[in-house]
Structures are given as structure tokens and as C-alpha cells.
Design a protein that fits this description.
Order of helices and strands: HHHHHHHHHHHH
Largest sheet: none
Oligomer: single chain
Radius of gyration: 23 Å
Shape: elongated
Structural class: mainly alpha
Number of helices: 12
Strand content: under 5%
Length: 235
């Protein structure tokens, strides 16, 4: 498609990605004032810096940024929002909601890719990005994998914490229960015990307490569980 077909207010996107081009066209449908020269310069400076950083990163990181360019899309969205004087009409509100949803979806895609990064720090960042996100089978499955199999303890515990609000789901609870085997990681088990007492169903809590009474849990974990129960009863 000729470059001029994507021209908006004298500007053309520096991309050939279909999703980025669609986002650019959607933005062009919103009535807006011209961005200031300062805002335009800041945006292109940030876009240039992102691409320079991506070119110095490992191959997996470049692949993320060569896909829908989330940081650039987010910067573009925020920049346009700052330059808009929005009219309070339903059509414009729907356009903003649609753009927000697109940016959120692209951000989630990057976070999921980060969970497979070699760096534990990047995996942690990906988990933090997904924490609190709306329940989604992709997110839940990725977090369960990190909680059960990650080689880094901090990453495992962060994943367990992120899954806490989902422990009322019997399937999530079932998949995390094997972490409580006596030969497992004690710190992971203590984190899971805390999350279970905070978020788990009554059935899951009873199951853990029965495991503690039967000696199926690490002694430290059993003691911690029982102390949490006593604390809740005394409140």
C-alpha cells in the first residue's frame, strides 16, 4: 500500500506492521489538535531510542520489539491523548476504549514473551506485568509453569503470589498442591500456604490442614499453617 495512504496530518508511520498501521489509522479518526513540536520531537526521540536498545539486546528481545511495537504504540497513544481536547460524545469514547484495549493486549503479549526470557529479572518483570490482569487461560498457564518449574526461587514465589487470587479455582489449587511435597522448596511452600489462607476456598484450606495433621507437609510449613489458622480464629 502506498505510503501516502497512511499519512495523517502530514505524518506517516515508520513501520510496515499491519497491526501498527491499523492502530495509526484508528488514531487518525479522532478529532484532534496538532501536537506541539515539542511533543512530536519527544515521541520520535523515544521511538528511536527504543529501536537502538532493541538492536543491542538478545535475539528473543528483538523479536518482541519487531512484533507489534508495544512501547511505541503506548507512547503514541499517550502522546495523542495529551494533545487531544476530547469532546464528550459516545463515538469518541468508544474509539478511546478500543485503542486502550489494543495497547493492553500488546502489553500482555510482551509480558508473556518475557516469561520465557533467560534473565530471571526479566521473567520477574513479566510476572509483575501480568499480576492483577483479568483471568485468562494463557496468563494462568504461563504463571503455573513458572511457579512449578522455574529454576529461580524468587521467580517461582512471585508466580505463586500472582496466582493467589485464583486459588479459589479448584484446578489452579490442584496444580499447585504438588509443590507442598515434603522434599519441595520450603520458601515456596510457605508462600503457597500464605496465599491459600488468604485466597483459597474453604475446601482447599481444609485439605492443607488435614495434610499438616497427617504429617504430609514439611514441619515448618505445618507449623506455619496452624499458626495462621489460630491467628484467624482469634481475630
Amino acid at each position: 500500500m502506498p505510503e501516502r495512504d497512511h499519512e495523517i496530518h502530514g505524518l506517516t508511520p515508520d513501520t510496515t506492521d499491519p497491526e501498527e498501521l491499523q492502530l495509526w489509522r484508528d488514531l487518525g479518526q479522532i478529532r484532534q489538535q496538532e501536537p506541539t513540536d515539542t511533543l512530536r520531537r519527544d515521541f520520535y526521540r523515544a521511538l528511536s531510542q527504543n529501536r537502538q536498545n532493541a538492536s543491542r539486546n538478545p535475539v528473543w528481545w528483538r523479536r518482541i520489539f519487531m512484533q507489534p511495537l508495544v512501547p511505541a504504540a503506548a507512547a503514541l497513544f499517550v502522546g495523542v491523548m495529551m494533545g487531544l481536547q476530547l469532546a464528550s460524545n459516545d463515538i469518541q469514547d468508544r474509539q478511546i476504549d478500543q485503542l486502550s484495549a489494543q495497547v493492553s493486549a500488546l502489553t500482555a503479549t510482551v509480558a508473556l514473551n518475557m516469561l520465557d526470557a533467560d534473565s530471571p529479572g526479566l521473567r520477574l518483570e513479566g510476572i509483575q506485568s501480568l499480576a492483577g490482569a483479568a483471568a485468562d487461560d494463557r496468563f494462568t498457564g504461563a504463571l503455573l509453569l513458572r511457579a512449578r518449574q522455574d529454576t529461580n526461587g524468587a521467580v517461582r514465589r512471585a508466580a505463586i503470589e500472582a496466582l493467589g487470587p485464583l486459588l479459589s479455582d479448584p484446578e489452579v489449587a490442584r496444580q499447585l498442591t504438588p509443590l507442598l511435597q515434603r522434599d519441595g522448596h520450603v520458601l515456596d511452600q510457605l508462600e503457597l500456604a500464605d496465599q491459600a489462607m488468604a485466597w483459597g476456598s474453604d475446601g482447599f484450606k481444609r485439605q492443607l490442614l488435614e495434610m499438616a495433621r497427617q504429617g504430609e507437609l514439611n514441619a515448618q510449613v505445618s507449623e506455619h499453617l496452624l499458626s495462621r489458622v489460630k491467628a484467624q480464629v482469634s481475630i
